[in-house]
Amino acid sequence: MKAPQIRNALLIINPKARQGAEAQLDDGLARLEQAGISVERLASQGPEQSCQAVRERKDNLDLVIVGGGDGTISSMASTLYQCDLPLAVLPLGTANDLARSLGLTGALDEAFDVIVAGQRQRIDLGVVNKHYFFNVAHLGLGVQVSEELTDEVKKHWGVLSYLKAFFAALARVKQFKANMSVDGVHYRQRSIQMAIGNGRYYGGGNVVDEKTRIDDGKLSLYSLRPQTVWELLTLAPLLRDGRQRYNKRVFNVQAERIEITTGRKHMAIHADGEPVAQTPAHFSVVPQALEVLVPAFTETDLPE
């Protein structure tokens, strides 16, 4: 949907994100100024400063532009939703999974093209224990991958960071017991990894489920039953493409509400790569929660 012209925007940049992009950023900002968009630039030192800046300026803003990775953007989700402000993404992170879900290629010049064009689409937000997220929340192996994915690993391994972190996490993965209520239907099983997706992508381009869209009003859950390292490696191509439903070692379901308990042991939950909660966990989806700027698709649909 084409919205009224954007006149005032706030650009929030994570200073740690993609070093060396200054020239491209300056060129893009010059393009926005030429298009009649006045941009205030903030090099934020953290989520608290970013969210406060948005709240203080909300009455005078037409758009919030966030330049950074998925963690930086996800930290803004609650504030953007509460302030009812549109979001534009400058993919400056390692994975840029939200950008992928929105149909962006990762090129900065394209991201600025999208802002100038002004094409909009409403997307869903996932919620876990009152924390909002865009992409995917994890228990088990996915949490351990996030813990292995340090700034140093990202710096030295670049696009291979997630692969490096995955193999390091495999060495210490443990199985756990989980009780689930999925739209009121109960399941009980052992698992080494659970992923609950609102968006389509996670972990640098993995697909949480081939049927998932970030605007479909549902969450997609998959759970990996305990298996050997070799079995996990043979499963990897299916996990990459979101086709794990075709393997009997994987439990797969879509729902609007999911509850997970893990017995007496509370387990950490990471969402969009950041620690946000622990079990027992209550997951839900807020349909059409947020307006975002997207490439001009023929049918205005987000990519499948």
TrEMBL record:
Alphabetical list of PROSITE patterns matching this protein: DAGK (PS50146)
Alphabetical UniProt keywords: ATP-binding, Kinase, Lipid biosynthesis, Lipid metabolism, Magnesium, Metal-binding, Nucleotide-binding, Phospholipid biosynthesis, Phospholipid metabolism, Transferase
EC numbers: 2.7.1.-
UniProt keyword Lipid biosynthesis, yes or no: yes
InterPro entries, A to Z: ATP-NAD_kinase_N (IPR017438), Diacylglycerol/lipid_kinase (IPR005218), Diacylglycerol_kinase_cat_dom (IPR001206), Lipid_Phosphate_FormReg (IPR050187), NAD/diacylglycerol_kinase_sf (IPR016064), YegS/DAGK_C (IPR045540)
Domain DAGKc residue range list: 4-132
Enzyme class: transferase
Any one GO MF annotation of this record: kinase activity
TM stretches of this protein: none
Keyword ATP-binding on entry: yes
Requisite cofactors: Mg(2+)
Protein name: Lipid kinase
Annotated source species: Gilvimarinus japonicus
